[in-house]
Amino acid sequence: MSDNQRIAEQVIQAIGGKENISSFAHCATRLRIMVKDKEQIDQKQVENIDKVKGAFFNSGQYQIIFGTGTVNRIFEEVEKLGIEGTSKEDVKSQGKKEGNAFQRAIRTFGDVFVPIIPVLVATGLFMGLRGLLTQNEILAWFGATADDISPNFLLFTQILTDTAFAFLPALVAWSAFRVFGGSPILGIVLGLMLVNPALPNAYAVADGSAQPLQMFGFIPVVGYQGSVLPAFFVGLIGAKFEKVLRRRVPEALDLILTPFITLTVMITLGLFVIGPVFHSLEEWVLYGTTVVLDLPFGIAGIIIGFFNQIIVVTGVHHIFNFLEIQLLEKTGFNPFNAIVTSAMAAQGAACLAVGMKTKNLKLKALALPSSLSAFLGITEPAIFGVNLRYMKPFVMGLIGGAVGGFIASVFELQATGMAITVIPGTLLYLNSQLPLYILSNVVAMAIAFALTWFFGYKDQPAVADTSGNSYSGNENNASDVEAVSTVSNNQSSIATTTSTSTPVSSPARSKVTLLEIASPIHGTVVDLEQVPDPAFSEKHMGEGIAIEPSEGKVYAPFDGVVAHVMDKSKHAVILEHATGVQLLVHVGINTVGLKGNGFVTHVKSGEPVVAGQLLIEFDMDTIREAGLPLITPVLIPSGIETIASVTALSSGPVQANGEKVLKVEFTEPQ
Questions:
Q1: Known catalytic residue at 27
Q2: Mean pLDDT over residues 359-382, rounded?
Q3: Catalytic residue among 7, 27, 327, 349
Q4: Measuring CA to CA, which of 68, 84, 250, 474 is 20 to 30 A from 367?
């Protein structure tokens, strides 16, 4: 029996046998499995299987990381055991069905709102800058007053700050049509119909300067400027209705009848039924939110500050996007942001305390970048990678968040926008609130850091594993040393078929050589920890960097050979240098689900390439419209014994085949 056959059998056994598998697929680096019963999975047994670099649940799928090339062979062996493979898209679709009805509804709600958040972020920044530029204290520095500001300039700033919310229904309806399978252009038109200037303006009706239209003598009709729920349900129902029509209208008439009927029926329902009903519901939701936020003595800050990150762990936190949009649209301010920011800053500080206190180099390398990520507004790496792993730091972070939230609530901090927090969030408090915003965050961080340092984490003395490397344990997780040792041993057993170099463990027969690699893509270099996929951010796949592309092209950064290119999905390529060093370029995250749509490959596996040669073209808009991150990992695959170290050489903007971005130290025979 070959090694891969044995591994395939061990995988099936560890996840509960054939009968526990509902669907089975793979991408460039990992097996993607939908299981019927999660409790039957033996996680420790999976992690101890030879060649496994990590395993976890993500998007409803159990994903086992093997790495490029290896995963294909393991998948083939699994199929030989009588388990029929499933398309990756089917696995992804089934993953969306995971969780209870409420979790699935919130996940779908988030899918609609996430694509429009960047526009609302920009609007919030415009509001903050406008507030800063119109402050008398700031104007006094230039010897001016508010009366000296040009009316035309104020009109320009009003265009910047009001447009997104005035036409918010068009954005929401567009995104809803996209998510629910309709034609997004119909969604845009329906959303614009809801705010047509011929209708009484919602803001004018609210301040009493205009009256609603009375249709049929009893149905009040107004524009829905700034509304969310009416546009959301118009988009949801409209997309479903359009799909039904397309199945029934003859193809010859589809282009004419389907848009006509869809728009006619849906705007009628939108103005006369959906709009009035869900606008009323929207008002009640807003009322309930403001009641909670208006609780006296800082109680709202304590409750929200403590529980917010717990809700993030459950995955239903996207509902807060809707609440924040409503607050901004109705009141012009967002008190929720300051409280949530304290909760996030506290988790980052707890993670920082672990990173500074531990002697475990692996944990330190994970915790310190994760804490920085939290201070920039992304807490998932800190929560899932460190704080929840040891639990006590997570609890200490919750306490710090509650105290910081209390301060934010007592001082009635109100952001001018949404979706950016902690350090970037300072731009939302430029209207004289900045000192108090900093105070609430510093207090939250100080308390979380101190509690974690003294009570939340205790490092154990370093111990040696069988390879002679030193690691430190932790009283919160007695198996930490064993886990690190297992990963080290698993990786040491993996060798590429192309490398014949002498292992690092034989220094007398080898010498260390340096190889510097240029960027394969135009874009901006960021830390690998910022990749929203644990397989890359936790470096299961290897060491390297990530690049936010500014152009949809991948070039060869050196002369070499195409070791492997994904023929069907076309989203990843592995190059091999003459020295045996391999480089993986993985365009986007979860882009395997696009099945090659938006990708064009210009090379084949085994083909020689020269530096600067075009390897892959990808349509960035196609990836964005699919709701997938464009961030592209560029790394040296793990598990190759000849690699001594990998170091990032650059950050910020880079040009393909320009700046060197990676330095690889490897061994070769003398």
A1: yes
A2: 77
A3: 27
A4: 68
